[in-house]
Every structure is written in structure tokens, then in C-alpha cells.
Specification:
Strand content: 25-35%
Number of domains: 1
Largest sheet: 6 strands, mixed
CATH superfamily: P-loop containing nucleotide triphosphate hydrolases
CATH architecture: 3-Layer(aba) Sandwich
Number of helices: 8
Helix content: 25-40%
Length: 246
């Protein structure tokens, strides 16, 4: 099985590593007639500043792997390390805290809250964890909206902006807490080609400016080719993990 290592040697890898999976597997309904092995012997590493595509056919285990990476589910075998911390034996509270501190999520469906303004939606992860935002928090949220090209839309409701604009709000929201790892699940799946390219450019922008690792699940070969690296999953196993040609 491919076991990707970060570029730059062992010392660089240790200091720059965001995520490491060692022998990770996922088995559903063990010991029953419905037992299903979804993931097997997954070994991979993601480093700061890497923009990585996760590709593979439907049913290959991409969603299951993303749930594990997002600490939304736990492996049946192996260990997942986030920022050097093993996560397999964490209690629910600690797991939730680590997820909120270290991870950002962008989905195919942006899940904005219609009753709140665009600015309030961006602030939502912070308000859930800390309560009322400070002046500095408001400044950061407005800066993120400006970065995604929506500086003048803070007072709008999600229903007053386009689907592509809503996805940009979702990206700003995911970055509000400056996560070490941004996970994006088919983030351009509902967008037209031009809008999809603009959204992808935002991932690249924040990947470079914040230095966060970004993992994008996509079926779009053009977007995958624009990433630094592509990991291909087939039948629950990594069959290819390679750098893309610049």
C-alpha cells in the first residue's frame, strides 16, 4: 500500500505534519451477516500547506474516510493522529474540542442558516464555542468575507445571494477559527464550471496564505489536477498517491 511521506525529510515532516493515519480500517456490523469492510490499511500523511485531492469511484470509501479524518467517526483498526495527538481513545468532549479547534469543513451543500446574516453565518463556529464575538472577531469575519469577494454582503441573508456566493460564505465560515486542516467534500458539485473554478481558486488562496492543509474530495479531474497531490481510493484502499505535475 502506498504510504505517503511529506517532502523535505524526517525532521521537516515531523514539524509540518497535520494528519497521520497508520493502518486505519473501518468495519461496519462486525460479526454479523451484514459485516462490511469499507476501508483497509490506510496509511497517509498530510502536511501544512498541502492542497490534496481525494479521488475515486462512487462506493470506494471516500465519504467514510472523510468522516474519520473529520473525527466524526472512529476507525475499527489503526490510529489517526491529528497535530501529533492520537485520537482513537479520546472521549466525546475532547474529540469535539479537537475537531472544533483544528478542523474546518466545507460541504457540497453549504448549510448556511437562513435566519442569520452572511456575517453571522461566518461567525457561527466562533459563537458556538465562545459566545458573543469581540471587535477583533468581527474584523476577522469581515476580512474573510472580503477575501472571498463578498465584503459588501455581510448584512445580506443567504437567500439573497447566489449559490456560488453561498459556497464562498461557507468557505469563510470554515476558516473563521484558522483550522490546521480544511476538509472539503465535493464543494463544487452543485456549481457551474466557471463558479467551480473560482471556488477552487479560493482554496488555493487560503492554502497558501494561511498555510493550512486542504483535502478536497472531488470527481472533477480538472480540479484534482490543480492540486499539489492526488490520492486515489478504490475498494477501500489507497491505490495511488502521487504529486501532480506543476
Amino acid at each position: 500500500m502506498p504510504d505517503s511521506t511529506l517532502r523535505g525529510g524526517p525532521e521537516s515532516a515531523d514539524s509540518q505534519q497535520v494528519l497521520r493515519l497508520e493502518g486505519v480500517g473501518k468495519l461496519y456490523n462486525p460479526g454479523t451477516p451484514l459485516q462490511t469492510q469499507v476501508l483497509q490499511d490506510i496509511n497517509l500523511r498530510l502536511g501544512r500547506g498541502e492542497l490534496t485531492a481525494l479521488i475515486g469511484p462512487s462506493g470506494s470509501g471516500k465519504s467514510t474516510l472523510l468522516n474519520l479524518l473529520g473525527l466524526l467517526d472512529t476507525p475499527s483498526a489503526g490510529e489517526l493522529y491529528l497535530l501529533g495527538q492520537p485520537t482513537g481513545n479520546l472521549d466525546d468532549r475532547t474529540r469535539t474540542q479537537l475537531r472544533n479547534q483544528a478542523l474546518g469543513f466545507v460541504f457540497q451543500f453549504h448549510h448556511l442558516i437562513a435566519a442569520f446574516s452572511v456575517l453571522e453565518n461566518v461567525l457561527m463556529p466562533l459563537m458556538i464555542g465562545r459566545g458573543k464575538p469581540t471587535a477583533a472577531d468581527l474584523e476577522l469575519a469581515r476580512s474573510l468575507l472580503a477575501d472571498v469577494g463578498l465584503g459588501g454582503f455581510g448584512d445580506h441573508k443567504p437567500t439573497q445571494i447566489s449559490g456560488g456566493q453561498q459556497q464562498r460564505v461557507a468557505i469563510a465560515r470554515a476558516l473563521m477559527l484558522r483550522p490546521a486542516l480544511l476538509l472539503a467534500d465535493e464543494p463544487t458539485g452543485n456549481l457551474d464550471t466557471r463558479t467551480a473554478e473560482k471556488v477552487f481558486e479560493l482554496f488555493r488562496h487560503f492554502n497558501r496564505s494561511f498555510g493550512c492543509a486542504v483535502l478536497v474530495v472531488t470527481h472533477d479531474p480538472r480540479l484534482a489536477a490543480g492540486c499539489d497531490r492526488s490520492i486515489e481510493l478504490v475498494d477501500g484502499r489507497i491505490v495511488s498517491d502521487q504529486a501532480n505535475k506543476g
